């Protein structure tokens, strides 16, 4: 027999299979509510008598609400899966248009973009800078290539809109990785001299 002085928190109620709407409609106001002086959080403590929770769980209303909640959850899962599949299909099919620039112009924009990000040479500083910074007016090996790929990747940021509507960590993560790979592959195709760096980034970000 349940102790009538035993309480369960809102989190505990949720763990028993309740949704917030079920708590609101079937349990109503908490049996105990206030702020726990032992905690720093300002969030109110909401406690429900366990015997009352168990009593409601045996009712037909609870059974019906539970079935409806599971049906909605399943429907949401199906929608999310379909949305993820549609986004992945769109990413695979989308034509990626990389801006084609003369070599000197691409270098100029890449260096300017790097400086805007705060990665250029600091006034009065000597020696190598982070990520292939300038050394006595020249670039370390591979630095300009990395900067060019970074600039072109930034220039293609508009394609991030293909990810709209994806919120789940797993689904969105897969889509983001696919999109990055497609963007780097497009950059490599447009600028063969940058292909090695693009392939390196694909491998690192996989």
Structure, explained:
The protein is mainly alpha-helical and 206 residues long. The chain folds into two domains: 7-58, no CATH class; 85-205, no CATH class. The protein is built from eight helices and five strands. It has a three-stranded antiparallel beta sheet with strand order 1-3-2. The chain has a two-stranded antiparallel ribbon with strand order 4-5. Helix 7 (169-190) runs antiparallel to helix 8 (195-205). The protein is elongated. The relative contact order is 0.09. Mean pLDDT is 84; it is low at 121-130.
Question: What is this structure's SSE topology?
Answer:
Blueprint: E1 7-9, H1 10-15, H2 20-27, E2 32-34, E3 45-49, H3 50-57, H4 60-93, H5 103-116, E4 134-135, E5 138-139, H6 143-155, H7 169-190, H8 195-205
Antiparallel strand pairs: 1-3, 2-3, 4-5
Helix pairs in contact: 4-7, 5-6, 7-8
- Average pLDDT for all residues: 84
- Structural domains: how many: 2
- The proportion of strand residues reads 5-15%
Instruction: Identify the overall geometry.
Output: elongated
Q: List the helices and strands in order.
A: EHHEEHHHEEHHH
Distance between the termini: 55 Å
Strand line-up across the major sheet: 1-3-2
DSSP E strands, number: 5
Helix-strand makeup class: mainly alpha
Number of DSSP helical runs: 8
Low-pLDDT stretches are 121-130
Largest sheet: 3 strands, antiparallel
Rg of Cα set:
28 Å
């Amino acid at each position: 027999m349940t102790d009538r002085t035993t309480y369960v928190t809102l989190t505990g109620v949720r763990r028993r299979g309740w949704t917030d709407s079920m708590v609101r409609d079937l349990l109503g106001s908490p049996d105990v509510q206030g702020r726990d002086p032992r905690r720093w959080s300002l969030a109110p403590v909401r406690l429900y008598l366990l015997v009352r929770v168990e009593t409601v769980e045996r009712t037909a209303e609870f059974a019906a609400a539970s079935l409806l909640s599971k049906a909605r959850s399943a429907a949401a899962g199906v929608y999310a899966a379909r949305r993820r599949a549609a986004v992945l299909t769109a990413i695979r099919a989308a034509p990626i248009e990389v801006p084609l620039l003369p070599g000197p112009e691409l270098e100029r924009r890449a260096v300017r973009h790097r400086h805007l990000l705060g990665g250029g040479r600091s006034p009065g500083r000597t020696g190598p800078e982070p990520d292939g910074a300038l050394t006595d007016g020249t670039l370390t090996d591979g630095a300009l290539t990395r900067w060019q790929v970074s600039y072109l990747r930034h220039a293609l940021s508009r394609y991030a809109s293909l990810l709209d509507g994806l919120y789940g960590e797993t689904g969105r993560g897969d889509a983001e990785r696919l999109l990055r790979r497609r963007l780097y592959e497009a950059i490599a195709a447009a600028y063969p001299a940058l292909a090695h760096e693009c392939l390196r980034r694909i491998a690192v970000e996989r």
